[in-house]
Description:
By secondary structure, the chain is mainly beta. Helix content is about 10%, strand content about 50%. It contains one helix and five strands, in the order βββββα. The chain has one helix spanning about 70-80; strands spanning about 1-10, 10-20, 30-35, 40-50, 60-65. The mean pLDDT is about 85.
Amino acid sequence: GVGVDYDYGPVGVKFSAFDFETKRGEKPHLKAMGQVHVTKNIFFLGGLDDFISNDQDPDWFMGAGLTMTEDDLSSVFGLMKIKP
């Protein structure tokens, strides 16, 4: 497969294409997705999956996520006091 990712500030766009060679002659699997970071750690995304398939309608998706770095985790665990 092949993919292209483009991020500019809080906005990102991703496109991927794979499964070019199939046994039944299906079209390649294409996926497009957009992502917006509302804060450093919280993002929303949405996109379209398998949108050129003859076998099924395209699949729309959306979601939200949380990203955490090692520094974020050490801050959280540093706030917790563990007593023996």
